[in-house]
Each structure stands twice: as structure tokens, then as C-alpha cells.
Amino acid sequence: MERLRMAYDLTVMQGKKTILRVFMTAAAFCLMFAAIMLREGIGIGEKTCKSILIRGTEGYANIVVRGSDDEIRLLPQWALELPEVGGIGNMVDYGSSYQNLGELKRIQAGHIKEQAIALNGQLEIKIISPSLLDLCDFKLKEGTEWKNLKHEVGVKYLYLGSAFESVAVGTRYSQPVGGDLVVAGVLSDGMKWISCDVERLSHMSALATLDYVEDLTYDIFVVSDELCSNQFVLFPSDGYDINDAITVIRQEAERRGLSISAEPLSSIFEEGKKETVRLTKGMISLSVICLMAGMLISVSFVLMEMLDFAKSAGILMTTGFSSGFVKNVFFIKEVMLTLISLALSLILSVAFAKNLFYSDGMQTMFDELYLRHVIPFGCLLAAAEMAVSFLTVGGFLRSNPPVKLIRMN
Known about the structure:
This protein is α+β, with helices and mostly antiparallel strands. It folds into two domains: about 1-45 and about 270-405, no CATH class; about 55-265, no CATH class. The protein has helices at about 1-15, 15-50, 70-80, 100-110, 115-120, 200, 240-255, 265-310, 310-320, 325-355, 360-400, 400-405, and strands at about 60-65, 85-90, 90-95, 125-130, 140-145, 155-160, 170-175, 180-185, 190-195, 215, 220-225, 230-235, 260-265. Strands 3, 4, 5, 6, 7, 8 and 11 form a seven-stranded mixed β-sheet that branches. Strand 7 and strand 8 (about 180-185) form a beta hairpin. The longest helix is centred in the last third of the chain and has 44 residues, at about 265-310. The chain is elongated and about 95 Å long. The model is unreliable at about 200-210 (pLDDT under 50).
């Protein structure tokens, strides 16, 4: 306790020097943590996508179609008739204008992902084409699968996340226009789905997030073919690969006066990785320079502190305290400062991550990035910092006997 009290007093007496040192060390740690999150994040996002997509990232493509709106609207109809095409359609997150859904709004409140939808007081829904229900493993806790439903003309069917289990299957919500909504089923607990933001999936960058996979606990699916977008998700029939499906669709589209750009999801991830490597290479170089500078500054601070308290250290050693006691006081102080810097950098990196990840990606980010990469690396950096400080103090005390320390000004 005596060593700890003296180390605390020494830290407080340093005042501004202590604060400056903590922030400089934390800044160096933060740079390295940010580089790790960016570099590892897209790889983890790819692994997570592979784990839920039935055909893996190699079995899907995002396609963009240009041409007449009328022809684009007809594309899914003729594309699904091609033997190579297993599924093609749109999916999108949408702020609902449906009425009489107060019960669903109450359950979903506080769990809306898109801030604009929440601010408008709307219900957040996912509109998805029927053929895309085979993208991922679509499991129901209760209700009837889409392909087994007896479809009523003009009715749209809802599939609700597990948080809506209190809503009875078969519940009908009357709508003044556009046809009624009927609950067809409740999804299983822990269901995951690939992001419905097709445009974001098509433009992965170094700032790729883990939100390519979303938790569906509070989500609502409206299964409908009424979407009209020029961006589609495509996957092949069994026995064909994604390039076969792309080729036949492109050929038929050209015959109909449409132009198509298509890219498999696996290729999009690879491009995102390359861009991430380019960005993080510079960040890592900068963070290494900052860490080296931080180490040098740390050594300088330790030496300055030793010079400031050299006379006190010399008096302690001549009155019976060992050099080991004095060394331990300074080492405890270094441990406190380094741990404070590490904690501050972890807090700041969480704030950085919150701007990079949506709420659905935060748990994955913590499990995959923080626990496996950031925290172990941060502990390694902190240990290196403390080792340098300890060796500096030990070397200083060994090379300066107590009498010399007392005479230092």
C-alpha cells in the first residue's frame, strides 16, 4: 500500500505532464486500433455473410440494369423462366405508410435501424421479392412458408421477427388501398439476413461495416413483387454457377435493349479488401511511427521524472529503502498511466466503431474484433510500454548511486 500511495502522489504531482503523456499514448493506441478494425472488419463481414447465405458469397451477384423502365419492370418475370436462374428480385428497407399497424409499431419502437424512419414515426419494414426468400435459411417458429401459402388475390403477407411472437398468425390488418396485410408467420429466434441495402452491398469500401448481416428479431418482411428498382440480387439454379446465370441474363437483356452490369458478391468483397489494405497500410505506418514516438516520449518523461525526484530517491535509498522499492514505486506509476491510456483508447475506439457499425453489427464487432484482435493487441502494446519504462528506471538507478542522486539538481 505504501508503494501504491507514493506512486499516486508522484502521478498527481506531475500534473500537466501526466495528462499530456496519457493523451499522447492513448492517441497512438487509437490509431492502431482503428487500423485493426478497418483491416479486419471486412474479412469478418465476409465470413459472417458466408455463414448465413445458403450458397456462400460465390453464389450471389448484385446486378444493375439500365434501359426502359417498362422493360426493367418485366425483367424478373422472364429471368425466372431461364433454367440457369434460381432467383432474382429486389429487397429494400422501407418506412411504411401502411395503416392500422399500431400493435407492430409498439413492439418495434426503439429498435428501428434507420434513423430517418424512426424520426418520421414510421414502421420499418423489409420489402422482398418472393424468389429471394431462398437467399438465406428462412426458418419459422410458427406459421406457413411462402411456397405453401394459399394466396388470396390482392393480399400481402407479413413475416415477423421473433419479438412479435405475441401477434397471432393469421392476423389481418385492413388497408384503405393496396390490399390487406396478413401475418403468415413468425421467424425463429436468432434469425439473420443479409443486408437489404443492395446499393451498399454493391459499393463496399475500406469503411465496410459488419452490417452486411442483420438480426431479424424486430424486423418485418413484406413479401411482394411490386418493387420497381434497377438493382437486383441474383442467384443460380442448382447445377449452375453464378457466372452461368449472369451470362444468360446479359444476353437476353441485350436482346431486349437493356444493359446490365453484374458482379458476384465474392468479387465485391475482394475489391473491398484491396481498398481496405490500401487505406490501412498508410494508417498502420502512421500508427507505428506514433507508437515509436510515443515510446521515446515515454522514456523522456520517465527520465525527466527521475531527474525531478532524483534527490528524493537518493534520500529514500540512504535511509534504508532499497533501490527495488524506489523502482517499484515508479513501475506502479507507469502501470497506472499505461492502463489509463489503454482504457481511454478503448473507449474512444468504441465511439469510432459506433459511427462505423449499425446496432446489429455491434455484438459481432465486439466478439470478433475487440475480443480477438483489439484487446489482445492493446494489452501487448501496454506491456511493451511498461517494459520500456521499467527498464529505463532500472538502468537509471543502477548507473546513479544514492550519493549522486542526492546531489542532482
